[in-house]
Amino acid sequence: MCAIVGVFNHPRASVLAYYALHALQHRGQEASGVVTMYRDEERDKARFGVHKGEGLVLDVFRDHQLFETTLKGRSAIGHNRYSTTGSNSLANIQPFHFSYSQGLFSLAHNGNLTNTRQLRESLKNEGAIFQSTTDSEIFLHLIARSKQPDAIGRIREAVRTAKGAYSLVMLSEHALYAARDPNGFRPLCIGRIKHDEGYAYVVASESCALDILSAEYLRDVEHNEILVIDDHTARTGEFTSHYISDSMEKSSHCIFEYVYFSRPDSRIFGHQVDKVRRKMGKTLAEESPVAGTEDDKVVVVAVPDSGNTATLGYARVNEKTYPTRYEIGLIRSHYVGRTFIAPGQNTREFKVKTKFNVVRGVLE
Questions:
Q1: Quick one: residue 349, left, alpha or beta (phi over 0 = left, psi -120 to 50 = alpha)?
Q2: Mean pLDDT, range 307-313, rounded to an integer
Q3: Which of 217, 232, 258 finishes a domain?
Q4: In angstroms, rounded to a whole number, what is the distance separating the alpha carbons of residues 142 and 163?
C-alpha cells in the first residue's frame, strides 16, 4: 500500500500534489516524492523538477522554496512510500523518472506485481540495468522497450505484461495517465478544480486528497482502465479512455482498504469508508452479540483510530438488546504513526508498545 497523486493543468501543480500527499500520509510513512514537468523556455525543451526524500511529507518538503525553484510546471505526480517490496532505501523512493526515445516520462505505483521475478530476470537477460529493488521499476523498462508507436500503446503493452495489483499515475511531456489493473485491487479516483485559467484535474488514491484541494469528485478510475488527461481534457472536460484487457474481468477489491488502510472520510470503490466500517460493526454485533445487564453493562472499546467507526456500529446494535455503553478505553499516541505499515516486525512491535495505553478508570 502506497499513496499516489497526479495533477494536470494547474499553475501550482506541485503545491497541490504536496497537499494531496499530506492528506494521504496514512498510506505511507517511509518516504515521499514529487516529480513535475515544465518547459525550459531558454533551451526550448521539457525538463523534470524532482524532489524526493525519506520521512514524512512535512519533513521531506520542509523547504517551501522548492515549489518555486525546483518543482516548477503545470503538471506533477507524487508518491508516499510503504515498502511492500524492495528495501527501505533512497533508490526505491518514487516517483521514478527517465528519458527515452519518446521523451521524458515519470511513474508512481501503488500495488504489488506477482510476476516480478520472471519479468526482472527476462529484462536483465535483454540487457536492462535496474537502479532499484522495487517491482515498480519494471513498468519503466517495459514502457521504454516497447515497439508501440505512441505512449498509450506502450503503456497498455506494459501493464498487460505485468500481473498483479497496480494503480498508476504516469506523466509524459503532453499528458497525465491513470491506470488500474483489471481487478481494480487498489483504489484510484479523479477530481476537477476550477481556477482562473480553466480546469485542473487531480488523480489520487483516495477522495480525502481531493477534499483538501476543494476539488470536485468526478468518479473512480475504473478497473481495467487507462485514462488519458491532456490539453483536450483541460479545454473540453472530455477524457480518453482505453481498456487494458480485451475481456472485462470482475473487480476484486482489497478488503483491507475498508478495514484499515483508507481514511474514514474517503470514498473508495464507490462507497464511503465510514459507512462500510459502521456496517461491519453492526454485522458483527448481529452475529456475535455480548450479553449484559443494568448492573453489569457491556463496555465496547475501539482500537483507535481505524476501529472507531466499526466500534460505534457494534455498540449501536448491541445496545438494542443489552445494556451497552461505548467508552474510550485506549489512548493512542499520535506521535508514533501507523504501526501495521511500519517496515519490519520488530519495528511494528515496538511501535505498538509505545502507541497505546489503557484508561484504567474505564476498564477496572
A1: alpha
A2: 97
A3: 258
A4: 13
Q: Tell me, yes or no, whether 131 and 52 share the same domain.
A: yes
Q: Which domain holds residue 71?
A: 3-258
Cα 143–chain centre separation: 22
Active site residues per annotation: 2
Looking at residue 255, its amino acid is I
| Residue-wise pLDDT tens digits, 232-260 | 999 999 999 999 998 888 899 999 999 99
Our count of domains for the chain comes to 2
Q: Are both 146 and 252 inside the same structural domain?
A: yes
Say if pTM beats, i.e. exceeds, 0.85: yes
What is the rounded average pLDDT of the residues 183-204?
95
Does 50 share its domain with 128?
Answer: yes
How far is residue 63's CA from residue 45's CA, in Å, rounded to a whole number?
Answer: 27
Of 47-51, 351-355, 356-360, the least confident: 351-355
Decide if pLDDT at 57 tops 80: yes
Based on the fold, state whether residues 110 and 230 are members of the same structural domain. yes
Look at residues 94, 130, 136, 129 and name the one whose alpha carbon lies nearest to residue 111.
136
